[in-house]
Amino acid sequence: MFAKPIPGRTTAAAEGDVVILLIGMRINHFRGVHHWLPVLLAMPRLLRELSRDKSRGLLGYNLLTGSPRTYYVVQYWESKEKLYAYAAAPDMLHRKAWAMVNGKEKKSRQHVGLWHETYVVPEGGYESIYADMPAYGLAAATGSLPIGKRGRRGADRFAHRSSAK
Known about the structure:
By secondary structure, the protein is of the alpha+beta class.
């Protein structure tokens, strides 16, 4: 359950572009629990569904909270095409969850806020360093490498290009 730290400094083994989805909710009124609780409980179900089928494209994620009112997920995807395909797939939970939210939207809007941001970060537009940490974030999603494989300085890691390009 508790990941063991990797001694020393490491970096993410990501190659090529990185697709990051930030998605979350804000509880606007705690007393409207029947409006926001189904939304809160939907995300773990979606993540379990995606984790069972790696071909859908989710590489990894982190569940986070910003306050007692705000909850969000940082997701790492293989491509924006796979992210869009999952979001639109009629046989997946996302469509059902979104239909549920939209069905209650007029009544729920005042009780729960929803948001997402998607970023496609081109190779050369990201770098990472982890010091005495278990694999986390991008490294948990793509694997980790000793820092020397990509460069000891941030500028060196930004300059890394995969052999695929």
